[in-house]
Automatic annotation (TrEMBL):
High-level lineage: Bacteria, Bacillati, Actinomycetota, Actinomycetes, Streptosporangiales
SUPFAM superfamilies according to UniProt: beta-lactamase/transpeptidase-like
Pfam families: Beta-lactamase
Biased composition (Low complexity): 217-229
UniProt keyword terms in alphabetical order: Hydrolase
Lineage: superkingdom: Bacteria
Keyword rRNA-binding: no
Name of the molecule in the record: Serine hydrolase domain-containing protein
Region annotated Disordered, chain positions: 209-229
GO terms for MF: hydrolase activity
Ranges of residues in domain Beta-lactamase-related: 21-386
Natural source organism: Actinomadura keratinilytica
Length: 395
């Protein structure tokens, strides 16, 4: 725990980001972490510090990759959207046009847009799935195609915490013949420290995720307040759902089970679950958002349509306000951004506190990765403070 000095580079104009990052370590809110920010094509923040592995005391280094949980979804969605841009399928057309088996149990009117915006009604698997089984994307997609939806697709939205990857990812697998991890590397992330399905050498030098044991909570002991949609019952309903193994929340986030070692399990890290399986550095993920916001991955019109809010309001899984475009989170209580960012910021958070964010209008890209996990699935206040500081530095 001695390796807490923050290292790296920070433009003086973005010193507020460094101040917030250092304060989190000083307050005991971090074990190890990294944050990176681009202003246009200029990398203005690239900081890291602390311990990558609590068991050994191994220090976090400039090239230490970290598991990014649901930040993965933004890259899976980008891969699917790139195929739509190339004319491989119609985002608003029926899934059965390219995945006939998906029409079982009344799902024949489901569109690709429903898959990409958490409206498919398949937030959880109907049976327990092991980490070993989850390494087969074709088998996982077939399981979901055969299931009955929990609500009529398109008539509600609920966070598909893990199943999202095998639904949106099936667009990529069927229409490109490649896994999401291979497509991402070959099409737009080849030069980045970013893997959806990490090789063993990357796993070996990666940060090890650690659950908080004692001391201050990473969010400072505060949880995100209900959003403007006004869910007054949130504080009552969420603890009940979290305590109920049969709740939709627990079924969505806990199956497949990652097995021994949790999300440090090499079986999971090698498999690269397309909904929550990416390992990356903060600099690598920020560079992805830099390129995305600059129009180097998707055309600007494709990106504008992708980040247009498709659904917003009470989430049938998360029991709080969420907002989604086609694969990207939009500002809500689950994706906290300052007022200056609410019109144009997009991205995705991850369990434990990670976040990736882009803003084409502001020319900003940011990524933050901690290995000391917060208590929530999304909306960690450490990330929110860093995002707020970055926008403040933009003026």
């Amino acid at each position: 725990m001695a390796q807490t000095a923050v290292q790296g580079q920070c433009d003086p104009a973005f010193a507020a980001v460094r101040d917030v990052f250092e304060q989190h370590f000083a307050d005991g809110l971090e074990l190890g972490a990294a944050v990176a920010v681009y202003a246009g094509d200029r990398k203005v923040v690239d900081l890291w510090g602390g311990v990558a592995d609590r068991r050994t005391g191994r220090a976090w280094r400039a090239d230490t990759p970290c598991f990014a949980f649901s930040c993965t979804k933004a890259l899976t969605a980008t891969a699917a959207l790139l195929l739509a841009e190339r004319g491989a399928y119609d985002v608003d057309g029926p899934v059965t046009a390219w995945w006939p088996e998906f029409g079982a149990h009344g799902k024949e009117r489901t569109t690709a847009a429903h898959l990409l915006s958490h409206q498919a009604g398949l937030p959880a698997f109907a049976r327990p799935v092991t980490a070993e089984e989850a390494a087969d994307p074709a088998a996982m997609a077939a399981e979901l195609a055969a299931q009955e939806p929990e609500w009529t697709p398109g008539e509600g939205h609920g966070y598909h915490a893990l199943t999202y990857g095998w639904l949106a990812g099936e667009i990529v697998r069927r229409l490109s013949g490649r896994t999401v991890g291979a497509f991402v590397k070959e099409e737009f992330a080849g030069g980045l420290d970013l893997w959806i399905g990490a090789p063993d050498d990357v796993i070996e030098r990666g940060a090890r995720m650690t659950a908080r044991r004692r001391g201050p909570a990473p969010d400072g002991g505060r949880r995100a307040a209900p959003g403007p949609a006004g869910d007054a019952l949130l504080l009552e309903r969420l603890p009940k759902a979290a305590a109920d193994p049969a709740s939709r929340l627990n079924r969505a986030v806990g199956n497949p089970h990652p097995g021994k070692g949790g999300f440090n399990n090499p079986v999971v890290l090698r498999a690269g679950w397309p909904g929550a399986g990416m390992m990356t550095t903060a600099a690598g993920m920020a560079a992805f958002y830099r390129d995305l916001a600059a129009g180097r991955i998707l055309r600007p019109d494709t990106l504008r349509e992708a980040v247009r809010t498709r659904v917003q309001g009470p989430d049938l899984t998360m029991l709080q306000e969420t907002a989604f475009g086609l694969g990207f989170m939009r500002p809500a209580s689950s994706f906290r951004v300052p007022a200056a960012a609410r019109a144009s910021a997009f991205g995705h958070g991850g369990a434990g506190g990670s976040i990736g964010l882009g803003d084409a209008e502001a020319g900003l890209a940011l990524a933050y990765l901690p290995n000391l996990m917060g208590d929530g699935l999304v909306g960690d206040l450490r990330a929110a403070r860093l995002v707020e500081a970055a926008y403040r530095c933009l003026g």
